[in-house]
Write a structure and sequence with these properties.
- The protein is mainly α.
- It has a single domain, classed as Growth Hormone, Chain: A.
- 77% of the residues lie in helices and 0% in strands.
- It is built from 14 helices and no strands.
- The longest helix is centred in the C-terminal third of the chain and has 45 residues, at 411-455.
């Protein structure tokens, strides 16, 4: 017993450091990918960028169906390394953008991204559960919130560094438009090598899919993505995921071309860095709020704040911009590039509005990447592959639709459509909370009934095979 007690602090510390290392490796690569998506329309021809981004998210959505069995077969760490290498090839395709190379690379990157994010959710959940197991006073929920916060903070910090990097490179060498993509590719390879240093976390013996050891509330819907698509709670969360996916398509497809046309490509990098600062600071705050200030419902407050931030950003764009007859894509192609200095008077967005939009955009991303992923990791920690595949499938389909359809709409119309989806996401999340609260009450009533039967001398009912408070992940 003494040896076990003394072994706990070093093991707990090692798992904490492992979670940080994993978060930096994964976030560093994703920072390069997200920066590339955001800046692609400012550097390469807009039509080429939008089509490549649409193909990326289309194959991302398709890949989520294959992700759970493939990640389970490869193991989370091996799957992440293979997919990070594939993402590096996608980034390299932008160095010499050609449709014959970029479109297949985007398809490969999208499919790899589905596996990568599925493995990421399973890995950080497993690391958090093992971390909580080292201290009886800690809970799975608190540990998952902690590691989700670590990942979200690392993710937004890497975005904060990656996006102004492109702005700095394009400011110093304005003619070397492909230089940022070469630097991103080199960094992606380095972060892939860093992932090799992360420790493998194997599922415990005897916890195959469909086995015992998980609570009934965590296993509703089974372990496949198809089953998750009809699981009631996941259906309600799908609206929130789609709202995130559409918002992340609105900015690269409409706002980035606006900034490029008005201020130049370098300004896009600097303004996206504003979103990175907002995301990094709020990700840390969203991680601390459920753990220290509002342990009962802090995560739900953070998700609601992120929904409100996305909605306000869309409302700002819709309020400031007129419904011009031409789309932003057509306008950017038809008009000659203006000088980069101040924002022209005819532009629909002022500097203050642009900065406010990007701060709100960063807040929404921080909420979804941290709080929403922590919620999914806690509720479906016994079936993380299918749960995180569903999370990425629903957001990926919305992003694909956004990159395909939003550029065809005037800016105000696109912003209003995105705002409407944000409202639907908020309604779905409110219904999700109601269903979750009702399920918790039913479980509590069943526990009290069993306790009453036992106290009265009656033979206690057989405990359901999945009633343990601590679960093991498959």
């Amino acid at each position: 017993m003494a040896a076990a007690a003394t072994a706990r602090p070093p093991a707990r510390r090692a798992l904490l450091l492992n979670g940080i290392k994993f978060s930096v490796a994964m976030s560093g690569l994703e920072g390069c990918v997200v920066a590339t998506i955001a800046l692609s329309a400012a550097v390469v021809p807009s039509a080429l960028a939008h089509t490549a981004n649409a193909m990326l998210y289309l194959f991302f959505a398709i890949g989520t169906f294959a992700a759970p069995p493939l990640v389970a077969a490869l193991g989370a760490k091996r799957a992440m390394m293979v997919c990070m290498a594939a993402y590096s090839l996608y980034l390299a395709a932008y160095i010499a953008p050609d449709p014959r190379v970029l479109y297949p690379a985007a398809s490969l990157g999208g499919f790899a991204g589905a596996l990568l994010w599925t493995a990421q959710g399973a890995y950080f959940t497993r690391n958090a559960v093992e971390y909580a197991a080292c201290d009886p006073a800690d809970s799975d929920s608190q540990a998952i919130s902690l590691f989700a916060g670590i990942f979200a903070t690392a993710f937004q910090t890497c975005l904060l560094l990656a996006k102004p990097l492109a702005g700095a490179l394009l400011t110093a060498w304005p003619d070397a438009t492909q230089l940022p993509f070469a630097v991103y590719t080199a960094l992606a390879v380095a972060f892939t090598l860093l992932m090799a240093a992360v420790r493998p976390l194997h599922p415990p013996a005897g916890t195959a899919e469909g086995g015992g050891g998980a609570r009934c509330a965590d296993l509703v819907g089974g372990g496949s993505l198809l089953a998750m698509l009809i699981e009631p709670r996941m259906l309600l969360l799908a609206a929130n995921n789609a709202a995130f996916g559409l918002a992340t398509a609105l900015f690269p497809s409409h706002v980035t071309p606006l900034i490029k046309h008005s201020l130049g490509a370098a300004a896009a990098g600097w303004l996206y860095s504003v979103a990175g600062v907002s995301s990094a600071l709020l990700a840390a705050a969203f991680a601390a709020l459920p753990r220290y200030a509002l342990p009962g419902f802090g995560r739900e407050v953070c998700i609601g704040a992120g929904q409100a931030a996305f909605a306000c950003a869309c409302a700002l764009i819709a309020a400031w911009c007129d419904d011009a007859p031409a789309t932003m894509l057509d306008a950017a192609a038809a008009l000659p590039p203006p000088p980069p200095p101040p924002l022209p008077d005819e532009s629909c967005l002022t500097w203050a509005a642009l900065l406010a939009c990007f701060v709100l955009y960063g807040a929404g991303i921080a909420s979804w990447q941290g709080s929403c992923m922590a919620l999914v990791g806690e509720l479906w920690r016994a079936r993380p592959y299918a749960a995180f595949a569903h999370l990425k499938f629903t957001s990926g389909v919305a992003s694909f639709a956004g990159f395909l359809l939003l550029p065809r709409l005037p800016l105000r119309t696109a912003a209003l459509v995105t705002l409407g989806v944000q409202v639907l996401g908020a309604v779905g999340f409110a219904l999700f909370l109601r269903v979750r609260r009702r399920g918790t009450s039913l479980l509590a009533d069943a526990s009290r009934e069993r306790a009453s039967s036992t106290a009265g001398g009656a033979k206690p009912r057989a405990e359901p095979p999945c009633s343990d408070t601590r679960v093991e992940m498959t």
